[in-house]
C-alpha cells in the first residue's frame, strides 16, 4: 500500500487547472512504495505520477529534491522530470500536503538483477556522479556517518529482541566507522539506489527514482550503498562477485573510482550496511507487526555489515 491520502476527482481537477496538461483521463493509486502517496495519472497530454509527500519525507528539502532531479533530467540522465505549472512551479499543495506531478517513465524494477542489469545500474550511477557537481547546492545527509551513534542509541536496546547477534553487529559497525575517510570527493548523491529505485526495460535503465534521501556525501559511499543493495542475496548471506564486478565495470565506464576511493570501499560498505541496519531496526521496533506496511529485515543488512568487516577492496569490486 502507498495511498495514504485519497485524492477526489474534484481535488485533482483543481490541481490540473494550474497546468497545461489537459484533463484527467484516468487516475489510479499505486500500491508500491511506503514513503508517499503515489497515483498514476493519465491526461490528454500523457502519463504522469502524482506524488503527495507524507510525513516520512523531509518537507523542507522538497524544493531541493525537485531542483536536483530537474538538474539530472536537464543533463540528459534517465531521471523523471518534475512538471512545472503555468507559474513555473513544480511543488504544489494538495489536500494540505506538498505534492508534485512527475513525468511517467516506462520500466519495471527488478528484484533479482542479472550482471547485465547491475552493469547498467553502475553506468547510470556513474553518470549521476559525473553530473551532480554542476548542481552546486549542498544538503546535509541527516542519515550520514555523523548521525549513526545517535541513531544506534535510539534502537540498540530493542535490537536483541530482533536477533541476539544484532546489537554486537551494530556496535562493531559503529567502531569500524568512527574514523571516517577524509578528503575523498563529495557531491550530491542518491544514497538509496536499491533495485526498486531503478526502472528498467530489459537491460536498459529507463528511470532512476526516489531521490528523497539524496544529499551531499562521499561519492564512494554512494557507490558502497549501491553495492550493498545490488550485490548480495536478499537475506544478505551471500555476496555475488559477478554482480559486483558488473556494477564496478558499469561505473568505471562513466565515472569510476580513484585508488583512494577503492581503498576505502570496505569501510564505506560497513557504513552503508550500518545505515540500513539502523533505519530498519528503528522501523522494526516502531512499526506494529500487523501494520499494512511490511517491515524490512534488519538482519539482511547486519549480515552484509559482517561481510564488509572482513572484505578487501578487490572483494567489493568482485575481483
Ligand atoms: N516517474 C515514474 N514513472 C513511472 N513509475 C513511477 C515513477 N515514480 C514512481 N513510480 C512507481 O511508483 C512506485 C512507488 O514509487 P516510489 O518508490 O518513489 O515510492 P515511495 O513511497 O515514494 O518510496 P519508497 O520506495 O521509499 O517507499 C515505484 O515502484 C514505481 O513503480
Ligand atoms: N531502501 C531502504 C529503505 C529506504 O531507506 C531499505 O531497503 O531499507
TrEMBL record:
Enzyme Commission (EC) number: 2.7.1.39
Keyword Acetylation: no
Family membership noted in the UniProt record: Belongs to the pseudomonas-type ThrB family.
Broad enzyme group: transferase
GO BP annotations listed: threonine biosynthetic process
Source organism superkingdom: Bacteria
Key words of the record: Amino-acid biosynthesis, ATP-binding, Kinase, Nucleotide-binding, Threonine biosynthesis, Transferase
Gene name, Swiss-Prot/TrEMBL: thrB
Classification via Pfam families: APH
Protein name, entry field: Homoserine kinase
Record's catalysed reaction(s): L-homoserine + ATP = O-phospho-L-homoserine + ADP + H(+)
HAMAP family with a match to the protein in the record: Homoser_kinase_2 (MF_00301)
Pathway membership: Amino-acid biosynthesis; L-threonine biosynthesis; L-threonine from L-aspartate: step 4/5
Residue ranges occupied by any Aminoglycoside phosphotransferase domain in the UniProt entry: 27-255
Organism per entry: Polymorphobacter multimanifer
A GO MF label: homoserine kinase activity
Record keyword Electron transport present: no
Gene3D superfamilies: 3.90.1200.10, Phosphorylase Kinase, domain 1 (3.30.200.20)
Amino acid at each position: 500500500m502507498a495511498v495514504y491520502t485519497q485524492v477526489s476527482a474534484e481535488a485533482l481537477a483543481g490541481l490540473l487547472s494550474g497546468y497545461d496538461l489537459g484533463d484527467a483521463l484516468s487516475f489510479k493509486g499505486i500500491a508500491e512504495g511506503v514513503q508517499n502517496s503515489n497515483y498514476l495519472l493519465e491526461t490528454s497530454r500523457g502519463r504522469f505520477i502524482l506524488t503527495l509527500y507524507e510525513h516520512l519525507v523531509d518537507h523542507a528539502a522538497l524544493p531541493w529534491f525537485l531542483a536536483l532531479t530537474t538538474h539530472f533530467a536537464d543533463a540528459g540522465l534517465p531521471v523523471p522530470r518534475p512538471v512545472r505549472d503555468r507559474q513555473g512551479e513544480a511543488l504544489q499543495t494538495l489536500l494540505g500536503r506538498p505534492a508534485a506531478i512527475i513525468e511517467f517513465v516506462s520500466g519495471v524494477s527488478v528484484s533479482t538483477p542479472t550482471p547485465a542489469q547491475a552493469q547498467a545500474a553502475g553506468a547510470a550511477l556513474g553518470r549521476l556522479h559525473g553530473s551532480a557537481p554542476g548542481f552546486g547546492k549542498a544538503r546535509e545527509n541527516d542519515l550520514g556517518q555523523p548521525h549513526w551513534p545517535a541513531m544506534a542509541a535510539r534502537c540498540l536496546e530493542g535490537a536483541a529482541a530482533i536477533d541476539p547477534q544484532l546489537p554486537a553487529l551494530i556496535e562493531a559497525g559503529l567502531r569500524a566507522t568512527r574514523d571516517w575517510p577524509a578528503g575523498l570527493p563529495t557531491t550530491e548523491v542518491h544514497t538509496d539506489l536499491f533495485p526498486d529505485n531503478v526502472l528498467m526495460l530489459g537491460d536498459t535503465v529507463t528511470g532512476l527514482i526516489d531521490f528523497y534521501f539524496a544529499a551531499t556525501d562521499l561519492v564512494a559511499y554512494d557507490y558502497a550503498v549501491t553495492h550493498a543493495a545490488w550485490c548480495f542475496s536478499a537475506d544478505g548471506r551471500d555476496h555475488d562477485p559477478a554482480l559486483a564486478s558488473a556494477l564496478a565495470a558499469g561505473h568505471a565506464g562513466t565515472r569510476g573510482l580513484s585508488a583512494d576511493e577503492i581503498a576505502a570501499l570496505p569501510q564505506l560498505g560497513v557504513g552503508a550496511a550500518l545505515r540500513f541496519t539502523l533505519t530498519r531496526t528503528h522501523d522494526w521496533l516502531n512499526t506494529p507487526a500487523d501494520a499494512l506496511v511490511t517491515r524490512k529485515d534488519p538482519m539482511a543488512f547486519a549480515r552484509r555489515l559482517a561481510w564488509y568487516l572482513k572484505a578487501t577492496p578487490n572483494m567489493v569490486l568482485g575481483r
